[in-house]
Amino acid sequence: MRLGRIEEGQRRIRLECEIQCISCSKRVPGGIVVADGFDKTDEFHRMLEDLRETYLCGICRDAKRIEEAERAGRTTGDA
Questions:
Q1: Calpha distance 77→12 (Å, rounded)
Q2: Contacts of 12 (CB under 8 A, 6+ apart)
Q3: Is residue 60 a part of any domain in this protein?
Q4: Number of structural domains, the chain?
Q5: Measuring CA to CA, which residue among 8, 70, 3, 1 is closest to residue 41?
Q6: Does residue 32 form part of some domain?
Q7: Is 65 helix (H, G, I), strand (E, B) or coil?
Q8: Residue 71 near residue 48, CB atoms below 8 Å
Q9: Containing structural domain, residue 38
Q10: For tag attachment on the chain, is the N or C end more exposed, with fewer CB atoms within 10 Å?
Q11: pTM for this one?
């Protein structure tokens, strides 16, 4: 998963961060990819904390979207 902006030609680094789905506790696959040097900024740390508090894996995210669509009375188009 990429975090922050990575400009063309900028070196990328991969970080292994403990980020889990807030619903089912699955880990982020493959870690976090950021621009070299971005991991030392305050903005990165704010974004990382926000991600830790709100991250949903794909399965939980889709389930939440379907649930919200059903509550709103819309169909999902899967019928």
A1: 39
A2: 6, 33, 34, 35, 36
A3: yes
A4: 1
A5: 3
A6: yes
A7: helix
A8: no
A9: 12-71
A10: C
A11: 0.70
Which of 41, 30, 38 has the alpha carbon at shortest distance from 7?
A: 38
Give 32-79 pLDDT, tens digit per residue: 899 999 989 999 999 999 999 999 999 999 999 999 998 888 655 555
Q: Which secondary-structure segment (H or E) carries 49?
A: helix 42-54
Strands (E), 1-79: 12-15, 32-35
Task: State the residue for tokens 């904390």.
Answer: 49
Q: What is the DSSP letter of 69?
A: H
Q: Which amino acid is at 59?
A: I
- Is residue 59 a contact partner of residue 40, using CB atoms and an 8 Å limit? no
Rg over alpha carbons for the chain, rounded to the nearest Å, is: 16
Where do we find the tokens 């379907």?
Answer: 66
Give domain status of residue 5, yes or no.
no
Q: What pLDDT is stored for residue 28 in this prediction? A: 81
